[in-house]
Amino acid sequence: MNRPDPPDLPDPPDLPDPAWLPPEAFRPLGTRRTLIQGTGPLVETVRGEVTGACERFGGEAVRDGRHDLLLELTAGDDLGLGAEGFAFAREDGTTTVTASGQHGLLYGLFHVVRLGGEAFTGSRPREVHRPATKSRMLDHWDNVAVHPVMGQVERGYAGGSLFWRDGRARGETERVRAYGRLLAACGINAVCVNNVNVHATEARLLTERIGEVAAIADALRPYGIRTHLSVTFAAPVVLGGLPTADPLDEAVRDWWARAVRGVYAAIPDFGGLVVKADSEGQPGPFTYGRSHADGANLLAAALAPHGGTVHWRAFVYDHRQDWRDRTTDRARAAYDHFAPLDGEFAPNAVLQVKHGPMDFQVREPVSPVLGALPRTRLAVEVQATQEYTGQQRHVCWLGPMWSEVLRFRAEGEGGATVGESADDLVAVSNVGDDPFWTGHPLAQANLYTFGRLAWRPDADPHAVLDEWIGLTFPSAPERLTAGLRAVLRGSWRTYEKYTAPLGVGFMVQPGHHYGPGVDGYEYSPWGTYHFADRDGVGVDRSAATGTGYAAQYAKAWAEVYESAGTCPDELLLFFHHVPYGHVLSSGKTVIQHIYDTHFEGVEEAEEARRVWAGLADLVDPARHARVAERYEEQVRGAREWRDQVNAYFLRKSGIPDERGRTVY
Amino acid sequence: MNRPDPPDLPDPPDLPDPAWLPPEAFRPLGTRRTLIQGTGPLVETVRGEVTGACERFGGEAVRDGRHDLLLELTAGDDLGLGAEGFAFAREDGTTTVTASGQHGLLYGLFHVVRLGGEAFTGSRPREVHRPATKSRMLDHWDNVAVHPVMGQVERGYAGGSLFWRDGRARGETERVRAYGRLLAACGINAVCVNNVNVHATEARLLTERIGEVAAIADALRPYGIRTHLSVTFAAPVVLGGLPTADPLDEAVRDWWARAVRGVYAAIPDFGGLVVKADSEGQPGPFTYGRSHADGANLLAAALAPHGGTVHWRAFVYDHRQDWRDRTTDRARAAYDHFAPLDGEFAPNAVLQVKHGPMDFQVREPVSPVLGALPRTRLAVEVQATQEYTGQQRHVCWLGPMWSEVLRFRAEGEGGATVGESADDLVAVSNVGDDPFWTGHPLAQANLYTFGRLAWRPDADPHAVLDEWIGLTFPSAPERLTAGLRAVLRGSWRTYEKYTAPLGVGFMVQPGHHYGPGVDGYEYSPWGTYHFADRDGVGVDRSAATGTGYAAQYAKAWAEVYESAGTCPDELLLFFHHVPYGHVLSSGKTVIQHIYDTHFEGVEEAEEARRVWAGLADLVDPARHARVAERYEEQVRGAREWRDQVNAYFLRKSGIPDERGRTVY
């Protein structure tokens, strides 16, 4: 008997799609007269953009005299704009973008593009725009050499890597530059070019292969993007031939200092290092009896003289857990490991925390780590690549989910939001060498939304989505705009409905994580269980009777989560094991909720497919066909989810659907 | 999140183990005077064996005069021995082996070796030994090129292939010859050198790469082994460039005739072709609206002029089944496809039928196909490679299972046994380039037992096991013999106990099939379900209320299987869906049987490990260590099976173990 076929791979690469920067988006700018004041390489990028737009649309980049738009780089920073901020104003028929740093000028330019014709109408008092976060980074889980199990891009659903192919750098500067341009246009300023799981080939990027990283950095730099590198904590042993990688060993510290000097010699504006340590088999400081602060500070010390940062991932847990042991709770792990270390991290060490305590499920509570280390720089990590959210074969626009996380107040009412307290925002990239960049053309919206929310975490995600629609489909008629809104806005909730219910998570096929497998991880060593039996389902994470995870939150949330009566419905099974007859605050029983949402989810996916089909006359045929084809798979997949999940719970609970629909 | 690690690969190859032909086994022969009469290449093989033994132990291969042993090839065949039979007798201090064919003389020699000292004591009236089957074949599921998912050997657990490595023939004639010698010594006379799933590289063995097959045939021929080849039904298209592979197309028939002529030009004693058609994605006659008899007869016609045979596999079923559809039953498929074709197959076409209706589970009923085609030549296929029986990391001696199949009387009392009505016996090989040939040293017993049961299907498997012990461990003290019996005899029942209960099957991890996955195939397209719910478990295959599979048997068995009251316990869940409280003929409820057998199975595995540990002083250290190491894994695995299966059924049924043992 053979294995089932793995999911199909995306089509081979082609000329990339313009995404949210189609030439047409530059028409309002390109028909105007623009004066650019200032010097520097990013100012040249701005000048190039303006000149290109004017050549296409008949406007002019003027050296002086009358102009419709002034892009000015000021000497001082009276407005407190910082390096990346800009001010935007319009009066007396002239629009002005003011920046004190070149990056700010570039972002100001793209702000004008985003506004379109509006940038040149009426009057506008001066608005100041500054990013809320310092680093807005994409982590590429790209392997240099094809990994025997994970392939060229780990959890990649958009073809090959932009950077690497079969062990070598691709050297496709133009495509990387075009990528950087797209990123700058949504506010992203950092890219980590290789997988956090650093295998043998990739380890050498730090040393003898740093030139290949430098070439990528050269292509990204004109758009204000700094390049970062994932490294293995064992590098001093693996690359340096030292007998240890102990962070307190002098020779180890010297080795890292030398290695990092080498990196900066090749890439003077290098951003820093990303490390996954003591996690899923990666080496780390635990080997030497040292703390993760020791580990992070080792690299921070090497980076500090050069202005670099280490992003140290908090994704540390026991991935060899015994499913029989109900006292160990993977959800607790990051907090248990890192909360006691608050205050011990160097100023240029950033703790990179997944937004939820588990692993990018369609619904998780906000990680308690995000409220637990007030004296530590934190990066919030989200996953644009849709590992658990449909793998870019299903539409699942994650804006609302990310926005919920960023607006979460860890201390309760009156406290700061996660978005306010985060220093950096990081997304695992969903991009590859696919002609549409992201496999599913509509998944571009996730990348764009991430960038914009990273810049401004309190932004309304629906407004961001409208921006994306406006840029990607310039002059879209109302029917197209409405159709795109209809298929995207609710798509995360739809995906949630037809997959794992009420925050329970992980009912996926093991390994590739595509498609339903209700018991797929139930008896595994990964710490991801639902404990469904004939009476009920869910994980008791209360302090009173469960694993105590709920008590990792500040009091306001700990109380809410502690009781099944106050816990929000959508997280109920994450925090509590309840009988199938438990009545939700919605008024439905858990079992009926499972049936209802699974039927609704499929209906919504079918409706989205129908809406998309009706847009055929308004969308470029290739793009329309690609999306239509993926909707077939989404609807097929949604039905499979519905039927497997419903059948599983009917067989366990014995409680029929009260509406008498078919459950197998 | 990463995938779990795949099971470890076996150690790298080394000098192969002598298995059941250690030099010491030749001592009784090698100390005697032997006269060999006859000529021919296999007689030379016999002479070489005798000479080698005498050189080592001081006897003599004499040309005439006094002798202890006469090995004579007669001109006629007065005794009706056929090509492979021999007569054995001893009187007046002389042992005589008489054969009318060279193959018979070779088998007679190994009979003498098997008897050891007994062959030379007392008197023995003439016994005639003839194989009950014509072809006793090993199918190697070896790939020439490493398959991206299945590797070098599909379902191989003994290292690489003996024949192929990384796309090339290994050309290791000596090792292949040594393999042939082992096979001859247990009666095997045919080897198919490549996987029944014929991929692109392997397809070419039939034509431009036939020389590589011929080199293997040359190495096997001295031990009386004919070489067979798996081919793709699409060969005329794939290799010949024809527009069709329609079996009734003249050009296709001509193409096959030419191709087969080419094979025989390279290998004059070529055995024939093996075909997996219309099965799990392989091409076949259905594409052209033709029957499987049309397909098989096409190849039979090409082979007939040369005396070759086509082995046509009956493993045809829908592997894209919808799990929601309870009317389709994979178990029915082979009978439904092939029973109506009885009488239509050419005389040199052999229908190769898996012993059970599904796929080599630890317990299945005997395939109803084996009683349904009286006018068709049948080969019974068993699986020596332990795909579903512990993958040569667990001890699972399959002799008793195979013997039960071979002694099954398809027509009921008074009818012929499967062993009597089968023309050929085929096993999927469990051999690779592992130094112990089979990964687990004790898995050698499966290979030996297969050969001996293929020769004589009514043999007592325990007597065969004793032969294997006697040959493999010459002069074993009673403690060793007793220990080996203790760990092997019951090992199949032990494995059955701790894995899938009562014939239900397929509770394995998808893909690699190692370790428990109770719902692993429950919602898959593979047609392998158990339908467990909170009330009961099993598949209703009765005629009255189920899929009707039970009615595919002759009346005697159809009646037995039809009712849960008469169905044998060990097959109950294969034939019936019953409540957990259903009382077995053993007097236990189904649920208590599940708990009890799973606890017992682990205890038995632990006890076997203990027994083996106690044999350390009597077994070669390398072999002892290899087995001891695998027992650690077996016990770990058995506990995992016990706990997952018990937990699954406790959670579903809610019925506690009446003995209060720990179920998680």
In short:
Two copies of one chain form a homodimer. The first copy, chain A, has helices at residues 27-30, 41-57, 102-115, 173-186, 200-203, 210-220, 235-238, 250-266, 292-303, 333-338, 399-406, 418-421, 444-455, 461-472, 478-488, 491-498, 555-562, 572-575, 590-613, 621-653; strands at 33-37, 60-62, 69-73, 86-91, 94-99, 124-129, 135-139, 142-147, 151-153, 164-165, 168-169, 190-192, 226-230, 272-275, 309-313, 349-354, 377-383, 424-428, 536-537, 578-579.
Structure description:
The structure is a homodimer of 664-residue chains. With 664 residues, chain A is of the alpha/beta class. The first copy, chain A, has helices at 27-30, 41-57, 102-115, 173-186, 200-203, 210-220, 235-238, 250-266, 292-303, 333-338, 399-406, 418-421, 444-455, 461-472, 478-488, 491-498, 555-562, 572-575, 590-613, 621-653, and strands at 33-37, 60-62, 69-73, 86-91, 94-99, 124-129, 135-139, 142-147, 151-153, 164-165, 168-169, 190-192, 226-230, 272-275, 309-313, 349-354, 377-383, 424-428, 536-537, 578-579. In chain A, strand 14, helix 9 and strand 15 (309-313) form a beta-alpha-beta unit. The first copy, chain A, is globular and about 80 Å long. Chain A starts with 26 loop residues before the first helix and ends in an 11-residue tail after the last helix. Chain A binds chain B through residues 1-4, 149-150, 197, 280-281, 319, 323-324, 359, 387, 510-513, 516-519, 523-526, 532-535, 640, 643-644, 647-648, 650-654, 664, and chain B through 1-4, 149-150, 197, 280-281, 319, 323-324, 359, 387, 510-513, 516-519, 523-526, 532-535, 640, 643-644, 647-648, 650-654, 664.
